[in-house]
Every structure is written in structure tokens, then in C-alpha cells.
Design goal:
This protein is of the alpha+beta class. It contains 27 helices and 31 strands. The chain has an eight-stranded mixed sheet, with no helix packed on it. A five-stranded mixed sheet has the order 17-18-19-21-20, covered by helices on one side. A four-stranded mixed sheet has the order 29-26-25-31, with no helix packed on it. The chain is globular. The structure holds O-methyl-L-tyrosine and zinc ion. This is Aminopeptidase N.
Length: 849
């Protein structure tokens, strides 16, 4: 039971704050248990204010003193903040509060991680630092003085003075409090410089704990590339004299875009060939870019209120995916993004947690940092760009920066710049923001006398609180192929605006094969009767690489569905196509690796569920195993050669091409392990000089239940490296057979290095359990119980990470009644916990309803 009746906040209730904040001065006297924060804030009443009440947020603060214009005052203080009588003319508010960073395990506000002070203020953490109108539409300049014994004292903006035991920072750009940051610690920097296109010299630093300084070079390169890319592609220049990044070990999310002082989860910035995999390198590059890009999309132009979160997040994810496409392979990036979207966002959109890209109510905003806001938010930007065209997109975005720089904006402002610069009416398009749920597009076709007609019918299933949906405008990119595989019509974007609509193509000599939803032009589920022969044809011939992959993916899915439902043997034609494709050296290795990667077991469960079956996680797992075994056997003769040919020789480099080859190589090794029991994997383990190959070999060996020696060796080698040990913890669970996954995870929670307070370690174990579908859902429900036990234990320490992990239960209604009852019992047990946080309470009640 949550402490008090949770309050729901509505978008429709938005009212501006009645006061302008002109300047903020903060002084921090650092001390682990008793940090004093002195604030001096200049307020001016707004002449046109609707609401003049003076309420300052404040939580877990001990108020020492408060003054207005130098005179002591006695405000009314509650658990949420304070109210006070204030003058109707400009006045200065001063307060002194005491806080305890060292006992702050929620990792929100000012806390300590491994002896260093750091902050996390998005979304509403600043109120745990001092009393303040903690809302994104209140923007002000900040001057910060830090007093402490630490060697390095950092805050936002530019340094404005320092001496023995103190430093001062001034941020000239008005910002909301959620972008405030402070770091203090005995840190070491990896320095560099960047000259902006107008010639401004910027000092760059990545700050880390001593010992990590050799893991900063890649992150720094990524930062410099991001700064250059934003100038080249969006014309956006950096605007301070210094840009600092700090790595911290205890962090709830990936990273945070605080103005001029980005704070990163160390897993998202520290990289070295020996300790990081290719996937880590790619993710680090993308996250550094993402946080940097926020400087304009998020910081210079921020959100009016938290309902508008997608305004900064959707756009910034879209920008970072453009960046990755430019730095690496655009088609590989698109395929990976769609796999991720389907795995996380579609699961959310089709379950009890479904919500709009712009929600209209919430209890705890931290629960809305979701795949829907981020990834679907980015898809919406991509659709908009496709509908208006590249040039119009560039023009509209330029207008957005010109018109709204320095403001706190809404989705309406964003759409308005597109309407104004293109003359297009976007009222129907705006439904992408206001309607939750994944649209289904049913496709039928017809060919008569040289004319090919596609009929598209759209519908969106009901979602919580939204039973009925209107048709949206959906860009459907289509190309047509002739019978010989040549393209007879290049890509054209069909604008589906009606519930049902037909589109005709004339002058065709014979019935074409359609390639629909090229590049995955809209986040929808396409339903179309097709044959395996047609899919194989598209896999072989489509000029759109996304749809080539998609054809293979559908074949893979259908083959497994048939295995699960009809105990069919693995589809022979598909196996044949796959074995050809693996050997086809003319294809990009990264693409081949993607075609070889099996559809996720969760995705298969959802597909079966949508077709009216109750998915059995064990049967889905068995089908995947049988399929992989059959494929390995079909490749018996060529596997050793394929494995050898794809092995990357020479010094490790994290570039996309080498990474693609290593990915394909790892898939060969995993097939080969099915035939040789782990001989090749053991050799690779011993020879590996980089984490990508070491990790891949260990995964194969653990999966084959033949990796005890290597697992121990890995442990001995890396027990002093927190990030590498996260991999070790995760692999033990991820590679466990279904029957053993829950007990493996349970044992790990007893391990001396398991640390409930470190979100990375908690996620390594519990996240891996939730991802091991057949293990998590293994009969008897031990996985459910273990997760619930740990969520209950963590909630008392860190509500935010607990609440996020609750989403492991979001798909529960797909399963049989026995599993549903087992999950329900755990959800109810969590819900009945004394003093459950608002975060977890909201998540559990949404999942249960
Ligand atoms: N804005 C950051 C992510 C972030 C969001 C919330 C946090 O605490 C609730 C922390 C970080 C980003 O998009 O990178
Ligand atoms: Zn972001």
C-alpha cells in the first residue's frame, strides 16, 4: 500500500507559475551527512498571472532559515514543499537547508556514488536539493558556489572563479532546474578541445575516477564527432566555453544532459577494447551524441511541462539515430531500431501500460521515460519528415530554433512550425501524439489489365482509457518488383488517411510483387496474406534492405510458429535460403548477422497471442533450439570454414565494419558450438584479446553448459572491474536453460558482489532474468517470485529503478491462466507492501488493471 492516496496530475490543468525567476544563486557547503544549501533567488510577480500562489517544491529538506528581502519569514512547510506570503513587487527569497547525500539511495537530487558527490535532477530531483519552483517552464540563469575538500568541483556553465576548497560556476543560459548539476570528487580528466564553426574554442573533459582514465578516448572521439555533426547537419553550434562529461557508477538511467555538465552512467561512457563489446562501443557513441544533441533539443528549447517530454526526447532520439546512420550503416541501424521498437515499444503499446506519445495524466513522471515517449516519439518525427520531405523538414526545424530558442514549448509549437513553413494541415497527424496503441494495416491487392491496386485498411485496438480510435495519416512507402526481381516502380510514399483506401499503379506488364512499408516507414503492424515463396523472393531481390531483412524475419517467424503450433519440422525452403545467405560473401556481414538473428521469443509470444493462441514459453524456446540445431547441422560442412573466414584478424578496432564481421562470427561460433560442444569457443576464449570475442565465447560455453572453467577464469580476471562484472552476472542468467534461470539468478543475489544499491548490478541479474523468457516464465513461477522479492527489497531504497523493472510483468495477460494467477499473486504482493513508493504503486496498479 502506498503511503497516501496518490495524486493524478492532468495536462488540462496546466497553469503557468505566477512569478518570473530572474536569477538563482546557490552555495553548497558539502558534507556527506549534512550538506548545507544556501539559495538566493530573485522573483518578479508576473503582471498577467492567473495564479499568484507562492508555492516552492521541496522534499526531504530540513529548513534551517528563510528570508524575504533580508527579513526572516516562517513559511508553511509540508512534505511536498512550502507556501509563504510574499510581496506583490520583485523580491529576493533566501533559504538555507540541510540534506544528507550519503543516505540518498534513490539516486535523485544530490547523492554520493563511490565517494563522489553527484546530482540527478530530471525530472523532479531539484526539489530534493532546495526549495524551488521545480517545473520545466521556470527558466533562470544560475550562479553556483561549491565549497568542499574534493579536488574537482563542477557545475553547469562556465567556471567563474576558484580557490583552495571552493569553485564558482556561472551558466548564462536560462534553464529549468531539472538541468542543474553538481559534481565533486577526486576525479581525473581526459581533456581535448573543439573549435566551433564560428571559431569559438571549447574545452572538453571527460571526468572519471582514478583507474578509468584509459577508458575515455573513445567517448571523447564520439563527443567531437557529435559536435561536428550537429553543426554540419543541423547548423547548431555549442554555446559555452567548456563541456564536461562525468562518469558515475550508480545511476538510474543511461545519462543526463545537464547544461554543460553531462552526467553518465559509467557503463555508457567508459570504453576499452579489453573491457567493452562492440555493442557497448556503438551504444556509447549513440548516448554521447544523444546527450550532446539535447543541448539544443531539450536545453535551449525545453518542455513547457512533463507531458511534453517527447518534444525533447523523441526529437533527440531521432537526431541520434540520424547520427548513427551517418557514422555507421544506415540500413543496419534501421533494422536494429525496428527490432528494438518491436521488442520494447510494441510490447508496451499492446499491453496495460500503453500510453500516448504525449500522455494526458500521470502520477509519477519518472514512470513515463518509456519506449513510447522515446522510440515511438522518434518514429513520429521520422514520419513527419517523410510526409513533408527532407527540405521542408530542414526549413521547419530551422524555424523551430529561430522562433523558440530560450523557451519552454509544447507539441503544438513543434507542429505549428511545420504547418507555417509547409502550409500543410497537421491536425490529423497530431493524432500520433494523442492516440495510444499500434495501428494495424490490413493489406489486400488486385491486378487487372495492367493496373495493380493496393487496398490498405487501418485500425487501432483499444488501449487503457481509449476505447475508440480515429484513422491517422500513415506514410506507407511502397515499391514494386517484377517477376524477375527487377524493380518496376521505385519507392513511393502512399499517404493513408482514411480507414480504408485504395492506391493504383498503371502500366504494369504483369502482376508485380509489392514491397510494402519500406524502411519501416511507420510504426504499425502490417497484416497481409503472403506465401513463403513470395517472402523468399523479396529476401533475394528487394532493393530496400530493410524489407529484405523483414522478409527473412517473417519467414523465420512463420517457421517457428508452425513448429510451435503444428509440431512441424523447420521449414526446408527457409533453411535453404538461410544457408545460401550465410555463405553469400557479397552481402554485408552485419546484414547477414541480422538475418541470422532469430526473432525474439517475446515477439513470437506476442504474435501467437494476436493470432488467438496462448503462447507457451517453453514450446517457443524448444522451437528456437530445434531450429538452431537443424541449421547448424545443415551447415556442418561449411561451419568451420565460415567461422574461420569471418574471424577478424589484427588489432581490435570498434569500427562498424569490423563489428559487423565479429557479429556474424559470433553467430557462426554459436552454431558451431552446437556441433563441437564448445571446442572452438574454448579456443576463442583463450585467444581473445578483446571483450567482444571473450564475451561471445563465454556465452556459447555457458549455453552449452560447458563453461565452468572459463567462467571462473573470467571472474578471476575481472572481479575488480564493476562494468565487466555486470556482464559476468548477466551472462550466468541469460545463458541458463529455462529450468535453471531462476535459481541461477537467486544464487547470484547471494553473491558477495551483488549490490542492490547499484542499478547496473541489479539490472544485470534481474533484467537478464526477465529477458530469459522461458526461464522467467518457467512453470511453477519461481522466476516471478524472485523478481517480486527483489523489487520489494529495492523499492525501499530506489523507487525509480524498481518501478521500471516492474514492466517485466506487463505482458502477463498473454499467458495461460495458471501463469496469470502466479503473476497476479506477485503483483498483489508487491502492491500490498507497506510504504510502497508512488513510482512502484502506479506501475503495479496500471499493470494489474
Ligand atoms: N533525459 C535523459 C534521461 C534521463 C531521464 C530521467 C532521469 O531520471 C528520472 C535520468 C536521465 C536522456 O534522455 O538521456
Ligand atoms: Zn534524452
Amino acid at each position: 500500500m502506498a503511503e497516501a492516496t496518490p495524486q493524478t496530475i492532468y495536462l488540462k490543468d496546466y497553469t503557468p507559475f505566477g512569478y518570473q525567476v530572474d536569477e538563482v544563486h546557490l552555495t553548497f557547503h558539502l558534507s556527506p551527512k549534512a550538506t548545507r544549501v544556501v539559495s538566493r533567488i530573485e522573483f518578479t510577480p508576473k503582471p498577467d498571472a492567473v495564479d499568484r500562489s507562492f508555492f516552492l517544491h521541496g522534499e526531504q529538506l530540513q529548513l534551517i532559515a528563510a528570508k524575504i528581502d533580508g527579513q526572516p519569514v516562517s513559511p508553511d512547510v509540508t512534505a511536498q514543499g512550502l507556501t509563504c506570503d510574499v510581496p506583490s513587487t520583485p523580491f529576493v527569497w533566501e533559504s538555507e537547508v540541510e540534506i544528507s547525500p550519503v543516505t540518498n539511495t534513490a539516486l535523485e537530487g544530490l547523492y554520493m556514488s563511490n565517494g563522489m558527490y553527484c546530482t540527478q535532477c530530471e525530472a523532479e530531483g531539484f526539489r530534493k536539493i532546495t526549495f524551488y519552483p521545480d517545473r520545466p517552464d521556470v527558466m533562470s540563469t544560475f550562479t553556483v558556489r561549491i565549497e568542499g575538500d574534493e579536488k574537482v568541483l563542477l557545475s553547469n556553465g562556465n567556471p567563474s572563479g576558484s580557490g583552495e576548497g571552493w569553485a564558482e560556476w556561472h551558466d548564462p543560459w536560462p534553464k529549468p532546474a531539472y538541468l542543474f548539476a553538481l559534481v565533486a570528487g577526486d576525479l581525473i580528466n581526459h581533456p581535448d578541445r573543439f573549435t566551433t564553426k564560428s571559431g569559438k574554442d571549447v574545452e572538453l573533459n571527460i571526468w572519471v575516477r582514478p583507474g578509468d582514465e584509459d577508458k575515455c578516448a573513445f567517448g571523447m572521439e564520439a563527443l567531437i564527432k557529435s559536435m561536428k555533426w550537429d553543426e554540419d547537419v543541423y547548423g547548431l553550434e555549442y554555446d559555452l566555453d567548456i563541456f564536461n562529461i562525468v562518469a558515475v557508477d550508480d545511476f538510474n538511467m543511461g545519462a543526463m544532459e545537464n547544461k554543460g555538465l553531462n552526467i553518465f552512467n559509467s557503463s555508457c561512457v567508459l570504453a576499452s577494447p579489453e573491457t567493452s563489446t562492440d555493442a557497448n562501443f556503438e551504444r556509447i557513441e549513440a548516448i554521447i551524441a544523444h546527450e550532446y544533441f539535447h543541448n539544443w533539443t531539450g536545453n535551449r528549447i525545453t518542455c513547457r511541462d512533463w507531458f511534453q517530454l517527447c518534444l525533447k526526447e523523441g526529437l533527440t532520439v531521432y537526431r541520434d539515430s540520424q547520427f548513427t546512420s551517418d557514422m555507421r550503416s544506415a540500413s543496419v541501424k534501421r533494422i536494429s531500431d525496428v527490432i528494438d521498437l518491436r521488442g520494447r515499444q510494441f510490447a508496451e503499446d499492446n499491453g496495460p501500460l500503453a500510453h500516448q506519445v504525449r500522455p494526458e495524466s500521470f502520477q509519477e513522471i519518472n514512470n513515463f521515460y518509456t519506449a513510447t515517449i522515446y522510440e515511438k516519439g522518434a518514429e513520429v518525427i521520422g514520419m513527419l519528415k517523410r510526409l513533408v520531405g527532407d527540405e521542408a523538414y530542414t526549413k521547419a526545424v530551422a524555424l523551430y530554433f529561430e522562433r523558440h530558442d530560450g523557451q519552454a514549448c509544447t507539441i503544438e509549437d513543434w507542429l505549428q512550425v511545420f504547418e507555417d513553413s509547409t502550409g500543410r494541415d497537421l491536425s490529423q497527424f497530431s493524432k500520433w501524439y494523442s492516440q495510444a496503441g499500434t495501428p494495424r494495416i490490413k493489406v489486400t491487392d488486385d491486378y487487372l489489365d495492367g493496373t495493380y491496386t493496393l487496398t490498405l485498411e487501418q485500425s487501432t485496438p483499444a488501449t487503457p482509457g481509449q476505447p475508440d480510435k480515429d484513422p491517422r495519416v500513415i506514410p506507407v512507402a511502397v515499391g514494386l518488383l517484377g517477376q524477375n526481381g527487377d524493380e518496376v516502380r521505385g519507392t513511393e510514399v502512399l499517404e493513408l488517411t482514411e480507414a480504408k483506401q485504395s492506391f493504383s499503379f498503371d502500366g504494369l506488364a504483369s502482376k508485380p510483387v509489392p514491397s510494402i512499408l519500406r524502411e519501416f516507414s511507420a510504426p504499425v503492424i502490417m497484416e497481409r496474406e503472403s506465401t513463403n515463396a513470395e517472402r523468399a523472393f523479396l529476401l533475394a531481390h528487394d532493393s530496400d534492405s530493410f524489407n529484405r531483412w523483414e522478409a527473412g524475419n517473417t519467414l523465420a517467424k512463420e517457421a517457428r510458429v508452425a513448429m510451435v503450433l503444428d509440431a512441424a519440422a523447420p521449414d526446408a525452403d527457409y533453411l535453404d535460403a538461410l544457408t545460401k545467405l550465410v555463405r553469400d560473401d557479397s552481402l554485408d556481414p552485419a546484414f547477414r548477422a541480422l538475418v541470422l538473428s532469430p526473432p525474439s521469443q517475446s515477439d513470437l509470444a506476442q504474435t501467437l497471442f494476436e493470432r488467438g493462441h496462448t503462447p507457451d514459453p517453453q514450446a517457443i524456446y524448444d522451437a528456437a533450439e530445434t531450429f538452431a540445431q537443424t541449421l547448424a547441422e545443415a551447415l556442418t560442412d561449411s561451419l568451420p570454414r565460415l567461422y574461420a573466414d569471418t574471424t577478424v584478424q589484427g588489432a581490435y578496432s570498434p569500427d562498424a565494419e569490423s563489428a559487423g564481421k565479429r557479429d556474424l562470427n559470433a553467430r557462426m561460433l554459436s552454431l558451431l558450438t552446437r556441433l563441437d560442444g564448445g571446442e572452438a569457443a574454448a579456443r576463442q576464449y583463450d585467444a581473445a584479446d578483446n571483450m567482444t570475442q571473450q564475451n561471445a565465447a563465454l556465452a556459447c560455453l555457458l549455453k552449452a553448459e560447458n563453461g565452468e572453467t572459463q567462467s571462473q577464469a573470467f571472474y578471476d580476471q575481472w572481479q575488480g572491474d564493476r562494468l565487466v562484472m555486470d556482464k559476468w552476472f548477466g551472462l550466468q542468467v541469460a545463458c541458463s536453460a529455462p529450468k535453471k534461470a531462476a535459481s541461477a539468478a537467486a544464487n547470484l543475489t547471494e553473491h558477495a558482489l551483488f549490490d542492490l544499491k547499484n542499478p547496473n548490478r541489479f539490472r544485470a541479474v534481474m533484467g537478464a532474468l526477465a529477458m530469459n523468457q522461458a526461464g522467467f516464465h518457467y512453470e511453477g513461477g519461481a522466476g516471478y517470485q524472485l523478481l517480486a522479492d527483489n523489487l520489494i527489497a529495492l523499492d525501499a531504497l530506489n523507487p525509480q529503478t524498481t518501478a521500471r523493472m516492474c514492466s517485466a510483468f506487463q505482458t502477463w495477460k498473454r499467458y495461460d491462466s495458471t501463469r496469470q494467477e502466479l503473476i497476479r499473486a506477485q503483483l498483489e504482493r508487491i502492491s500490498a507492501t507497506n510504504n510502497l513508493s508512488r513510482d512502484t504503486n502506479e506501475m503495479v496498479s496500471r499493470i494489474l488493471n
